């Protein structure tokens, strides 16, 4: 089966736009004295919380010893809370604290302010159409992913 | 400064569409007996080649010992070639072999075939407009990134 040229081009644009935005965010993190692994770990804890170290390790592909150092720093900086599960006291869980949530939001704002430079070039109508068509495509692949799970 | 709602929505769509496509690709990799770290490493070598282990380590945030195991497997499977730099025999470099390039292309095809399910729902006109508007935004942030470097 041959892929449509339109698909290749749209995939290229989505993939590389995302890459540029991540690259920009990464630079801003460094300016703020944060590192990418610490930020990614914070992001992943927010996504999975409450989460234990082995689940986090499975998702992150960072060596356990490195991950422990990163999480220790996040806890020390009061971005993440480490506590024992009320259901099973042997299990240690992680969750993002208010300060960590604020930090994640700030980073998202930085990313979106950069993207907005491009969005501003579009007319209101183009912006509306872009959202409409992206939503159509997104909802379709979202539903296909959900079907696969079921 | 307040962000436009349109920016937030477009960022959300781009970010999550990319995430869904990566998630799908990851599942397909597992079905093919590949692992995500091996695939990511192969991808990064293709991006940076010729590249030495310490450059690769800096980009990947994987522990050196883990990265060595991953690269050994890629070399063993003839996806990657390891050779001494002709300029400096002390430097060991990596590059992707033909079989590795084929593997990367196949994975990209799988990703794009999935995306095409959604693209097919759009009319020819919607597809054209989507490419046009995404290009406008992409070119703008691409140029802004280039300016930052210069």
UniProtKB/TrEMBL annotation, chains A, B:
Pfam families: MarR. InterPro entries: HTH_MarR-typ, WH-like_DNA-bd_sf, WH_DNA-bd_sf. Keywords: DNA-binding, Transcription, Transcription regulation. The keyword Protein biosynthesis does not apply. It comes from the Bacteria. Residues 7-139 form the HTH marR-type domain. GO terms for molecular function: DNA binding; DNA-binding transcription factor activity. PANTHER family: TRANSCRIPTIONAL REGULATOR, MARR (PTHR42756), TRANSCRIPTIONAL REPRESSOR OF EMRAB OPERON (PTHR42756:SF1). This is DNA-binding MarR family transcriptional regulator. It comes from Orenia marismortui.
């Amino acid at each position: 089966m041959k892929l449509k040229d339109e698909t290749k081009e749209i995939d290229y644009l989505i993939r590389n736009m995302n890459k540029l935005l991540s690259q920009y965010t990464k630079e801003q993190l460094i300016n703020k004295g944060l590192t990418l692994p610490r930020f990614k770990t914070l992001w992943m804890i927010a996504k999975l919380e409450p989460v234990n170290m082995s689940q986090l390790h499975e998702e992150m592909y960072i060596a356990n010893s490195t991950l422990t150092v990163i999480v220790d720093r996040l806890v020390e900086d009061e971005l993440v809370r480490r506590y024992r599960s009320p259901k099973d006291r042997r299990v240690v869980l992680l969750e993002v604290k208010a300060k960590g949530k604020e930090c994640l939001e700030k980073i998202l704002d930085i990313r979106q302010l950069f993207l907005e430079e491009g969005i501003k070039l579009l007319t209101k109508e183009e912006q509306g159409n872009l959202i409409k068509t992206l939503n159509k495509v997104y909802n379709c692949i979202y539903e296909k992913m959900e079907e696969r799970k079921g």
